[in-house]
Amino acid sequence: MKEINDVEIIESIKKGNINDFNLLIDAYKNKAYSMLKRMLKNESDAEEILQDCFLKAYYSLDKFQYKSKFSTYFYRIVYNSAITKLSGKKRLIEQAMDSVDDHYDLIDESYSFENNKELSEKLNEIIEKLPPKYSAVLNLFYLEQLSIKEICEIMATTESNIKVLLYRSRNALKEIIIKNNLQEELI
Amino acid sequence: MIITDEILNKIIDNELDQETRIEAMDIINNSEELTKRLSALKLADKHLKDIPELNVSYNFNNIIFDKINKAAQYAKTQKRFFIAVFSIIVLLLLGVFVFFIISTSSMPVKPSFKIDINTRIIDIMVKKLEEVFSGKVLTIFSSIISLIIISVIYFLEESKKIKKLKNG
């Protein structure tokens, strides 16, 4: 349903109804912003990059051939822009460019929380601290609810790499839950 | 079967076949440690499904449309400039052409000689080229060429600016 709408919106924009681009912006801005903010760890950078991404998408709509979903196409722009920004700033470049076989420690001692903190608060804190690639996978998988195959296309990597990133992120949260003995909330 | 984190994740994602899943669940149910790990993983997955969506600033759409409009306006201005420069160049070339025609038609032709028309044109061309590369006409041509070069440089610079604007 959503995809049909995207196609219709794009066709309408191509016909000259520029204001319909608002619909595309509204559909993707918050999810893409969430991904960028978690990857770049900076609000203003995230918003600036997102504006650039929408402009890039707008000016390349004429070339858009519907070979993939617009969401895949757009998130590829977003992901690549984020990686470029990280590389350019030489900030977290190691984490951003590492292969998934590295041994980035997702759980360190600083992740022991005060008892009065809510579980969701504690877990959100970890999610915000994840390295860029992990954040990207989590946002695309859980927030945008894209398939592993689509995420592979966006991040230009293999299915097994994406699964490793996803499993590691989940495991990081799992370890924190076990460490804080919070799993009983579910049992 | 050894229950690894990978298998626990596959259980969460429903990626195991029926037989393997039953076997794995039997082992997990008989181990307090594994049950704890699976529960924790389920809780992590549940939390991740509710991962909060962050919001952009309220005037985000307006900022993008401002940029789009600005780039479009810039492109229009550039187009107008290009047309203006092109018109001036065409007019100048037309002027030179008219000047060339007038000067050739006013050249005296000796009626007593039957000159082949081609020879005459080549003759005139050579004379005109000599004129072009000397004196006033050379100045005019240099001005036109300079104008063309400046326009091309300006045009390229403007194109770069528009490209930059389009990329935000």
Describe the structure.
The complex is a heterodimer of chains A (187) and B (168). By secondary structure, chain A is mainly alpha-helical. Chain A has nine helices and no strands. The longest helix of chain A is centred in the C-terminal third of the chain and has 21 residues. Chain A is elongated, with a radius of gyration of 18 Å. The N and C termini of chain A lie far apart (37 Å). About 3% of the residues of chain A have low confidence. With 168 residues, chain B is mainly alpha-helical. Chain B is rod-shaped, with a radius of gyration of 40 Å. The mean pLDDT of chain B is 80. Chain B has two domains: 45 residues, no CATH class; 107 residues. Chain B contains six helices and no strands. In chain B, helix 4 packs antiparallel against helix 6. At the A-B interface, helix 2, helix 3, helix 6, helix 7 and helix 9 of A face helix 1, helix 3 and helix 4 of B.
Helix content of chain A: 55-70%
| Main β sheet profile of chain A | none
Radius of gyration of chain B: 40 Å
For the record, the count of structural domains of chain B works out to: 2
